Amino acid sequence: QMKLKSRPDMEVFVGTLVHATDSDPMLIMQDMVLGVINGKIEFVESVEELQQLKAEYGFTDANILYMGSSQFLMPGLVDTHTHAPQFPNNGLALDLPLLEWLQTYTFPTEANFSDTVFAREVYSKVVDRLLRNGTTTAAYFATIHLDATKILAEVLHSRGQRAIVGKVNMLRNCPEYYREASLSVSLRETEEFIRYVKGFENSLVLPCVTPRFAPTCPEDQLGELAQLAIKFDCHVQTHLCETQPEATWVKELFPWAKTYTEVYDFTRLLGAKTIVAHAIWLSPQEMTILAERGTGVAHCPSSNLSLRSGHCNVRELLNRGVKVGLGSDCSGGYSPCMLDSLRKCVHVSNTIAMERAAQQAGDYTPLSHKEAFKMATLGGAKVLSMDDKIGNFEIDKEFDALLIDVQAKGSPIDVFSQDNVEMKVDRFLYNGDDRNIVRVYVAGKRLLDSTTSANATAAA
Ligand code: GUN
Ligand code: FE
To answer: Which reaction does it catalyse (predicted)?
Structure first.
């Protein structure tokens, strides 16, 4: 009774699609048909074309998922900044500001990743947790340990998540027991890690040069790491201007630099494949440097609120042409779920708008949830310089997608009979959680499926 698929390489979806484009932060398209061949989006058409497409491609109903009225398809979520080895602290230890938090809680926790057995346990859980929450692409900091960082890359590769991942570099202003042995060891192990990850076959995992931040990296290390990134054409990720004490300290450590951003710019770390996390306390000149270099910002509202780092003015960054995506920044943030980042992003922007209004400091348009949706998908893809491959449902992009069901088993969302499709999407963004994410696809591969045959084919 099992029907043979006429095109085993094809998967076709009929129903509602939601995605961001350059002109529309959240476009909802009903009665659509989207076809995937070998992991890539082959066509996106009106459902009126279905018979024609069946004839042209030779697929049948066996290839089609007819989405129900409670379901829609959206691009996978992109987390532009998180720390996999900090998950043992997740939801804990948020009572100190950044620099004290690092010394007291974070460095001791990361030091434990000299133990590769522990590393494998933690990293497997982290990657599974992010995928369960619909994060199809993530940029990870690991630790200074080469072996454990290789394990994180292996886990990502075997689980099938799209990722960039870096061995952390730091030589000073961190405990004796948790720092790289020397500059030459730092460079040698970083290069070995890059070569190791580039050696994976059919891989969605990319290596990333990862100087922790300017206070932990002397100038020669920053410059040499930049050269390594240029040599291997790989990404760079770091932290920038997260707190005011940090920014003051950086000016003391690098007296030749007029600004924090110049420290990274003069050492050649800033490019189109560079991601800077936080970027809260920037001057307009620094924003201009980021825009000119094509460097993206990972906005981490959950972390910025938890560690009381400040409110990042995303509207101004966007107005000045800086790319901005969302980062969970666990365990500075506590939620691995990008929906939490999306909501906090809107609330931080609302807070800035309220402060401006109270100070009569002029009109300020807060970010809408639609703009935050774009930051969580296409915007994040741009920050990671992956928007040629992922971020929305453009033809020829890879199919990284989530099947959402607002009435999935255990759903926390109440749906009412008058609800239209836009209301269902909005309710998911504000009230949904991982129970509503019933399928997760990366590069066309179904990594997670909690649909039952009953609800997946209800509308067929
Ligand atoms: N700055 C340097 N290291 C870190 C870190 O681990 N987390 C955060 N939030 N900021 C940092
Ligand atoms: Fe961080």
So the answer is: guanine + H2O + H(+) = xanthine + NH4(+)
Ion ligand 2, residues whose Cβ is below 5 A away: 277, 329
State how far the Cα of 393 lies from the Cα of 21, in Å rounded to an integer.
9
The per-residue pLDDT for 6 is 82
* Residue spans in the chain of domains classed CATH 2.30.40.10: 10-75+394-456
| CA 19 vs CA 74, 249, 312, 328, 356: distances in Å | 6, 41, 25, 21, 31
Placement of tokens 């009435």 in the chain: 407
Instruction: State the DSSP code for 396.
Output: T
One-letter amino acid of 227: Q
Instruction: Name the residue of 105, 170, 212, 341 to mutate for ligand 1: max ligand atoms within 8 A of Cβ.
Output: 212
Q: Does domain 10-75+394-456 have CATH number 2.30.40.10?
A: yes
Which residues in the chain come in under a pLDDT of 70? 1-5, 452-460
Distance between CA 117 and CA 125 in Å, rounded? 13
CA angle 331, 337, 343 (to 5 degrees): 100
Q: Which residues have CB under 8 Å from 62's CB, separation 6+?
A: 3, 4, 5, 6
Q: What is the pLDDT of residue 423?
A: 98
Closest ligand 1 atom, residue 332 Cα: 9
For 390-430, how does the pLDDT look when each residue is reduced to its tens digit (9 = 90+)? 999 999 999 999 999 999 999 999 999 999 999 999 999 99
Q: DSSP secondary-structure letter at 376?
A: I
**Smallest Cα–Cα separation from 297: which of 229, 239, 216?**
239
Pick the CATH number of 77-383 from 3.30.1300.10, 3.20.20.140, 3.30.200.20, 1.50.10.10: 3.20.20.140
146-159 and 116-132 helices, crossing angle to 10°: 30
Domain boundaries for CATH 3.20.20.140 within the chain: 77-383
Which positions ≥6 away from 236 have C-beta within 8 Å?
208, 209, 210, 211, 225, 226, 229, 269, 270, 271, 273, 274, 275
Task: Give the residue from 229, 92, 86 showing the smallest Cα distance to 164.
Answer: 229
Distances (CA, A) of 73 to 30, 79, 326: 10, 19, 20
How many angstroms is it from 355 CA to the middle of ligand 1?
27
Kind plus residue range of the DSSP H or E element containing 346 = helix 338-358
Ligand 1 geometric centre to CA of 271 (Å) = 21
Residue at token pair 């209004």: 357
CA neighbor of 381 nearest in space, from 77, 48, 18: 77
The span from the CA of 196 to the CA of 193, in Å, is 5
